[in-house]
Amino acid sequence: MALIIITIVCFALYMGLLFLLALRTEKGDPFLQKCSTHPLVYATALGIYCTTWTYYGCVGNAATSGFIFLSLFLGSTLAVFFWPLILRKMVRIKHEYRVTSIADFISARYNHSETLAAIVTFIALIGVIPYIALQLRATTTTFRILSSYAMPEAAYDVTQYMAWFIIGLMVLFTILFGARRLDPTEAHKGMILSVAIQSIVQLLAILCVGVYVTYFLFNGFGDIFSKIENSEFSSLLSVGDTTSGSYMIWFTYLMLSMSAVMFLPRQFHVAVVENPDENHIKTALWCFPLYMLLINIFLMPIAMGGLLSGFSIEKADSFVLLLPLANNQFWLALIVFLGGISAAVSMIMISSMTIATMITNHLLLPVINKTNMFAFLKKELLKCRWFFITALIIVSYVFERFLQEAYMLVNIGLISFAAVMQFAPIIIGGLYWHRAKKRGAILGLVGGFIVWFYTLLLPAMVKSDWLSMSILDNGPFGIGCLKPESLFYISLDNNLVHAVFWSMLVNVGLFFLGSLSLKSTEEDQKCANNFIDIMSEETTLAVPETFYKDETIDLHNKKDIVVGALQQYFSKEDVLIMLDPCLDSLNILQKNMISVLALAELQNKLEKVLTGSLGSAAAHQAVKSMELFSESESQDLKRVYGEILSSFRLSPQELVNKIDFYKEKEEMLTKHSRELEEKIIELKEQIKERKLVEKALSQSENKYRILVENLPQRVFKKNKEGVYTYCNSFYANDLNITREDIIGKTDYDFYPKEFADKYRQDDIRIYKNDSSEEFEEEYVKDGKELWVHTVKVPIRSEDGISDGILGIFWDITARRQAAKFLTESKDILEVKVQERTSELSIANKHLHYKITELEKTKAELERAYKNLKETESQLFQADKLASIGQLAAGVAHEINNPIGFISSNTNVLRDYINTYKKQIEMSRDLQNAIEVGNNDEIRMLLESIRQFDEEENLQFIMKDSDTLIEESKEGLDRVEKIVMDLCSFSRDDKGGIEVVDINENIKIILGVLNNEIMLKCDLVEEFGDIPRIKCNSQKIKQVIMNLVMNAVQSLNEWGTVIIKTSKIDGFVLIEVEDNGCGVPKEELIKIFDPFYTTKEVGKGTGLGLSISYEIIKRHRGEILVESEVGKGTKFIVKLPIDSNEE
Amino acid sequence: MKRKERLFSKKEFSAFIFIFLFILLNWPFVSIFDKGHSRIIFYYLFIVWGISIYVLMLMGKSWIDYHKDSVQKKGQDQQNILAE
Fold first, then answer.
1. Common-topology check for domains A40-421 and A712-811
2. Class of the CATH-defined domain A712-811
3. Domain A40-421 classified CATH 3.40.50.300?
4. What pLDDT does residue A734 have?
5. Rounded CA gap, A623 and A553, in Å?
6. Per the CB < 8 Å rule, is B34 touching A239?
7. Which chain B residue lies closest to A88 (C-alpha atoms)?
8. Domain map of chain A by residue range?
């Protein structure tokens, strides 16, 4: 349901938008008015040629017959090649004769024939009703498809209501914008703009669905063609069945479309009646064929896409809509629907408006005039037109409901084209053939129409089951040679080709025969000339003014006749509104009496004006029936014409020649006058520009004058003779006279002679040198000194010669005085500067002496500093040596122990070895005795060995030897470790920074100090997980050793020393804590002072902590101490993790 | 350029182009490309169509210019008549 509502809302919004645009255009919106008369809008509106038959029907045609449908558009494109000749001429005629429709056009050419106009109207009506029905069918069908997609159960009902809604909307739209005024020649700008928009929407919609099918459902043209080539539908890639018959159909379609694109009533209306400017055709020449190309380019892929997607060929007319819906593209389908609606609405609007105008002017009005039965309707022509518009659309809808799926409706497009083709010979003949006559036109048109009806429409009716099939099979009344589809036994494969061939043969034949069989009347000739020679410049012979002076006819009387005659068509007010501009254009609006020539011109003018409302035939009849000329006036008119001719004093042939000559001459003069007008416009432009320049100049001069007048400087101008021509008010004020008194006089009139002479000499010199000069002069005025700066410039005339002087001077006394004051001040300043300079020089010398002294002091200080540094270094070294001394004692003690027991063991082992030696000797003797075989000796030796073994207890010695060796090895290992620790500790200090593991360093120190510690305390080690830091390893070890040694030495009895490391806030902490004697609080502040010590004399240097403090400070760290007497001391060293030694 | 415009402005040339294109879009030319079961006919028809539009565009451009030229050409004659 929602989708149906969306569809209806979108449709209503779209129509509303078009309505609004058309309304605003009609109301005179400047932008939209401009748009509506744009050449592109005109060209796009011609897209009305593409109706729903193109939009939906051609896809169906393509799905069944291949490319043959393209001929309908290719033919139209070929016809456009004739537009510069034919369409342009028709537009010119329309402007000249205020043509309202194609019937009016044909009627105007053939002696304003009402019969011809009625026939044309009848044929157009017969052709248009089924065509409108077809548009309504397409609209309702597509809406039903769309609503079935959204709500299948209610689709039918909704469509019925929607159909009437659309019909109502179309009637309203057509009346409001197409038939609001009686004169249909007035441009319907709103309607044309909306038609152009609808054409664009239609094009965009078909392009959208084309792109979707070609590039989204398939992979482009190549893909579709490949698939279709390999499918059962491959025969569609042809213009038919490749037989000669299909080419005849192709040719016929080309010819039909060539005539249709110009002579279909709706095409004629848009292309000719609504043409605002001949030059728009130039744009339409390429734009309209391009439009057709674009709208057709995707039709074949859509048809093929539908077939390849599995849709049945019977639904081919709806492929455009079904393909998006089958792929759930509702919005695309909605756009397609709106495109289809656009195609239908614009066609129905223009066709119904045109046909209604034709019916009113060429069927209804002649009937009223002839029968006088419905005379009252003459005044209600506009309403009649509205009625016919409504009736036409409703009848078409009823026709559509009645026919259902009849053959005729399906083929109505081409049937209509064939009907319209009947207009082609009489229109083209009428435009280019002088001997084309009314009778020929009527005969040709009627003959062609009858054959068309018999060979095309009748078979269509039979195939729609309205008539018996026997007419087609056996001919009427069994006459075989009159079979509608094979007349005279000539069968042309295709019924349309057959019908077009016969109808055109009869039409053209009768037209020629009918035209040639009669002699041209004066009226025929006049009409032919007017149409055929329309493109030549309009020329009229100038009638001498004297012929207008004979004013004997009462204008009021004639006005009454006109008003009385036209009141049967219009109200009195409307007639007067129409009449006054005619009178005004002839310059007789204010006159009471007019000449017979003026009356004749009035009659012609009125006929043209009425043509716009009633059509040319009815207008001609209406004017004729007025009987504007009385008998005597007609005689007068003839007499005046005769006099005019006789005034030329020419023979008829000479007159014709003269007329030709003057026509040519006037044509040239007209063109020359146009050129002159262009020149005048150009000159006017130049004058305008010049005025602008003058204005600018004047403004500039005014600015200059104001500037000069208000300058404090004195400005003057003199001519070559020294006479003042200008001076500003300040100059006049200086001389105490008015400016007017100065102008025209010389310097001699105001200044003493010597001054005037000087000024004159200056001026002459400036003229001579032709260059400006400036000078400063001193005067004495009222006893006061006065200085003046003067600039004089020669004024050059246009030829470059000096012919005057422009002078400007101003008072510079103040400046002069200031300069003088400045000079004096400068002298005083110079003296003062000199004094100051000598003072400064002395001070400078003194300063220099001081600086030398200071430099000496600095050198001494530097030396002292260097000594201090050396002392500091020595102190460091001394402290280190002291530490090493202490270490050495400990180390010696440490090494002494293992060395002692190693030595003792070695002595014991030496005794053991001696015992072994003895036993070995005894064993060697035994071996010799065994070799000799001296048994006694063997026994004796064995006894000796046993006794030796018992005495020496060899079993014990062997066991003890291993123990002693093992102990000695342990002792040596211990010594080796001590030596290694000592080496580590005393490694050369290269002062380098390295990444150091503090925990490892502490362990080395403790290794070295092990002996010292073991003898005095328990050592507690609490090493935290700390990062390696960058520092001087040797110096940090020195600090740690100092702290540990201090802690150990502070213990008076057995105690505990705790060494702890940790990491806090970017620092590594080393804590050394003891529970020794502690330091008094007052002593704590001195603890880091050099040479401060609490140890006995000779036991410490007093530098350890001081140096440690210095080392830690250089590492950007700090060393803290907490101590309490009797409880112990705690040193905390904080070292930054990322800091190097300074 | 001017020569081309003059050519396109001539009625005879327009007629020639029309006949030429009319032949191209009829038998036997269409049958040459209408091989049946082949896409070539599609390309042929649309290429000829495109060419037709291009020629029409040139005609539209030349049409007005031609008339301007002819007016200039008659300028001398006008001067003579005016002198008369």
1. no
2. alpha beta
3. no
4. 81
5. 18
6. yes
7. B63
8. 40-421, 422-533, 540-649, 666-710, 712-811, 816-978, 996-1136
